[in-house]
Amino acid sequence: MANKTSESFEFAKKKNKEEMKHHLITFASMIVFTLIAFGMVIGDFHRLFTIPVIILMAVVQVAFQLYYFMHMSHKGHGLPALMLYSGVGVAFLTILAMQTIVWW
Amino acid sequence: MSTATAQKQGFGATLWDYLTTVDHKKIAILYLVSGGIFFLAGGLEALLIRIQLMVPDNNFVSSGMYNQLITMHGTTMIFLAAMPFIFALMNIAVPLQIGARDVAFPFLNSLGFWLFFFGGVLLNLSWFTGAPDAGWTAYAPLSTTSPGHGMDFYVLGLQISGAGTLIGGINFLVTIINMRAPGMTYMRMPLFTWTALVTSVLILFAFPALTVGLFLMMFDRLFGAGFFDPTMGGNHVIWEHLFWIFGHPEVYILVLPIFGLFSDIISTFSKKRLFGYSAMVFATVLIGFLGFMVWAHHMFTTGLGPIANSIFAIATMAIAVPTGIKIFNWLFTMWGGVIRMTAAMLWTVAFIPSFTLGGFTGVMLAAAAADFQYHDTYFVVAHFHYVIVGGVVFGVFAGLHYWWPKMFGKILDEKLGKLAFWPFFIGFHLTFFIQHFLGLMGMPRRYWVFHSGDGLDLGNLISTIGAFFMTLGTLIFLYNVIITSIKGEKASADPWDARTLEWSIPSPPPFYNFKQTPLVRGLDPLWVEKRQGNGKMTPAEPLGDIHMPNNSFIPFMISLGSFVMGYGLIYQVDDSRWLFVAIAGLLITLGSMFVRSVKDDLGYHIHKEDLEEKGAGSE
Questions:
Q1: Whole-angstrom Cα distance, residue B283 to residue A89?
Q2: Of the residues B112, B190, B279, B321, which has the fewest C-beta atoms closer than 10 A?
Q3: Residue A97 near chain B (CB below 8 Å)
Q4: Predicted pLDDT at B5
Q5: Is A83 in contact with B238 (Cβ distance < 8 A)?
Q6: Where mainly found (chain B) (predicted)?
Q7: What is the four-CA torsion angle of B301, B307, B313, B314, rounded to 10 degrees?
Q8: pLDDT level of residue B401 (50, 70, 90 thresholds)
Q9: Which residues of chain B lie closer than 8 angstroms to A97, CB-CB?
């Protein structure tokens, strides 16, 4: 990040500021998610409601982690993203099969 | 052998060189030699099976021995022969085809090989005390309740060699994505490199399922767990799923690189650009994608229910489409080309109808309702031998003839090559074609004896005669290898008038491959230069120092440690003192890893001045 001109320096500064904002927002929302998850379990909601919501929040948190903290939102992450999603697909298919067509 | 300083070395020095090498070209030779030895072992097992089934009511081997033979034949051929052959070809060709000086992680490349090797040795040591006997698929509960230590050797041996394969796959993935020469875009990669890429992805996603399955089985057999035991709340169908989630992609892992090398060979020996290059790439990726959602077609009779069976049947039949695209593209590449029938091309041309026959029976087997009739009969045996022998083994022979000059600097004798082809080809069809009908007549798979009144005599006799023809073909090929290494003439850099980058450097290449990284100007880069340039690759960089990795003995030690640990784990069931052996093995492995972690190994540089002196380079 060698900023030769003040213009590009300003641009980088603005970009970093923007990124910092994103970090803070996602960090805050992750804390909120965790509070909600705990709250739902303490509040003794119905299981069929609690479990899907917690799983949904977990998925969102993983996405936050990957895209904002591990910089997958930046350019040049096409292949890692492709590989990640393929892996998720294979794992999902496996779990789906184990859940549905393994008889006892 | 492939170093620039090719002086006569003593045997000890050569051995040490190979034990410590991190050079992809030498690792290719290691994979080839060890795969070849295991191939001969698996072939011997096949021959014994066929002798047992030569005549009715035969008593050549006992029933228990027969079970060990079929199990070890399948396991050896898939994991210890076909896989290393694939890795041998990938190691020799992929870095050269993309204009790289080595793979991305040379140390890991060596580690992958040694893990595979020690896993294979562990598995085969079981012959002294009783080999695995539950079939290569090792279905629970047969495998979990099999007495003796045979299946323990299967579990630990495959676990260790599987780790090596996984490491190798990741290595090639990174190599192909990151180490391509300037101008070598994805859509300019030779088809072999493309298929190696897709195969590496399949390895990355498929092998963990095997690892998990083997771990569960290890805990069931060695530590009293009950993952596959219904009386303890387990379920043996889980093993079937895990095994085939790995096992089906595995057959594409084996055959895709072969498709790729056939594409390269056909285009080279037809003197034509590959017909429908982008369609071929698309078909490769599609086969890889679909390969992951068809595993349950091995389990139609397990009782998954009609809906699951239908879904998997349709997905399976869908694979015939990209495969058909490939078959037609190969035919259209040859159409109107200047075809040279070299030994490599002969194997390739024979592959097309042979493999297609296996594809047809594949579609037949994919029809779930019909599969209830075919399941576990010789029809299935015939089918998968048609695709694996007619595909992979033909492909390996073709690939060896094609790349032998690049590996060893000598051309395999063409006459002997063709002489080896004919008995193998005829024997192959004799052995396996008749097995379709044996299966339809009701001969079950894995049968130890059939009886004289069963009407299976003639078919089995023909099949056995075919097996002897295949043996003859293999022996002629071996003779060819020996004769060529003694008398063969030195090969030029480009003996086939070929099209891709590996033929732009001397045979065998100097250990740094490319003196200057070449600039790639199109698909089939060398051919582009032959038609539009001066026939030589243009360097993409000025001559400079080349950074090379140091040789290392650590991969051997890490693998040796896991081998010792595996042995200890197998026998600690009998006597807990064997646990000390297991721990000793673990310490060897961890200690070697520790040394690797704390010791700086920065490699060395070949200096520009030395390169200028030698004169050999990217020409």
A1: 20
A2: B321
A3: yes
A4: 47
A5: no
A6: membrane
A7: 180
A8: very high
A9: 241, 245, 296
Residue type, B484: T
Q: How many whole angstroms separate alpha carbon B619 and alpha carbon B514? A: 9
Q: DSSP readout, B469-532?
A: HHHHHHHHHHHHHHHHHHHPPBP-S-TT---SGGGGS-SSPPTTS-SSPBPP-SSSHHHHHHHH
Q: How confident is the model at residue B8 (pLDDT cuts 50, 70, 90)?
A: low
- Alpha-carbon distance of B229 to B263, in angstroms, equals 47
Is A69 a residue whose pLDDT tops 90?
no
Residues B419, B472: contact at Cβ < 8 Å? no
Long-range contacts, A88-91 (Cβ 8 Å, 24+): A89/B292, A90/B205, A90/B292
**Inter-residue contact B368 to B309 (CB < 8 Å):** yes
Q: φ, ψ for residue B551 (rounded to 5)?
A: -65, 155
CA–CA distance, B429 with B440 (Å, rounded to integer): 17
Interface contact flag, B241 A94, Cβ < 8 Å = yes
- Please name which of A68, A7, B590, B23 lies closest in space to residue B582, comparing C-alpha atoms: B590
Query: Mean pLDDT across the stretch A27-37?
Result: 92
**A84 and chain B: CB distance < 8 Å anywhere?**
no
Which band of pLDDT confidence, cut at 50, 70 and 90, is reported for residue B31? Answer: very high
B481-525 pLDDT tens trace: 999 999 988 999 999 999 999 999 999 999 999 999 999 999 999
- H/E segment holding residue B350: helix B343-366
User: Which pair of tokens denotes residue B230?
Assistant: 């219904």
Q: What is the pLDDT of residue B619?
A: 40
CA geometry: angle B605, B609, B613, nearest 5 deg:
120
| Tens-place pLDDT, residues B232-278 | 989 999 999 999 999 999 999 999 999 999 999 999 999 999 999 99
Q: Element (H or E) spanning B604, and its range?
A: strand B604-606
Backbone angles phi, psi at B518, to 5 degrees: -80, 155
Searching chain B, which residue's CA lies closest to the CA of residue A87?
Answer: B205
**In B126-185, where does DSSP find H-type helix?**
142-145, 150-178
Would you place residue B411 in the very low, low, confident or very high pLDDT band (cuts 50, 70, 90)?
A: very high
What residues does each domain of chain B span?
19-552+601-614
Q: Please report, as a single letter, which amino acid is at residue B520.
A: V
A104 touching chain B per CB within 8 A: yes
Name chain B contacts of A100, Cβ cutoff 8 Å: 308
Q: Which A positions 63-82 lie with beta carbon below 8 A of chain B?
A: 79
- Percent of chain B surpassing pLDDT 90: 93
Secondary structure of B537-571 in HEC code, one letter for each residue? CCECCCCCCEEECCCCCHHHHHHHHHHHHHHHHHH
**Model confidence at B4: pLDDT above 70:** no
Residue to mutate among A83, A92, A101, with most B CBs inside 10 A, is: A101
HEC-encoded secondary structure of A20-80: HHHHHHHHHHHHHHHHHHHHHHHCCCCHHHHHHHHHHHHHHHHHHHHHHHCCCCCCCCHHH
Q: Please answer yes or no on whether B205 and A101 come within 8 Å at the CB atom.
A: no
Contacts of B37 (CB under 8 A, 6+ apart): none
Q: What is the pLDDT of residues B316-332, one digit of tens each?
A: 999 999 999 999 999 99
**Tens-place pLDDT, residues B338-359:** 999 999 999 999 999 999 999 9
ipTM: 0.81
User: What topology is assigned to B19-552+601-614 in CATH?
Assistant: Cytochrome C Oxidase; Chain A (1.20.210)
Q: Mark yes or no for CB contact A101/B296 under 8 Å.
A: yes
